[in-house]
Amino acid sequence: xxxxxxxxxxxxxxxxxxxxxxxxxxxxxxxxxxxxxxxxxxxxxxxxxxxxxxxxxxxxxxxxxxxxxxxxxxxxxxxxxxxxxxxxxxxxxxxxxxxxxxxxxxxxxxxxxxxxxxxxxxx
Length: 123
Prior knowledge:
mainly alpha
């Protein structure tokens, strides 16, 4: 889980690079870093869920996780549009940067998540 939180530190890089007005070639590098972070996050999340959740409830837990995260995309997109209209693009991008860093920091600060280890192989 600690590796997931560290990978999550890449998320705020892209909106920050836009606010700072980086040239296109640096934006491309920042987006590649974010993509790598998302890839590591997804891999580690799937591995954690599959190894930590008992098999008899795994499908249900996974379904709730997907519904809670992917299902919120349209709502988040709608609210983002309203927020940008009210507060401005740069301000909202900076809010996203701060929230991204704080989320990763909260995951790293939570000892049960930070120290979550592997489970012995199930038979």
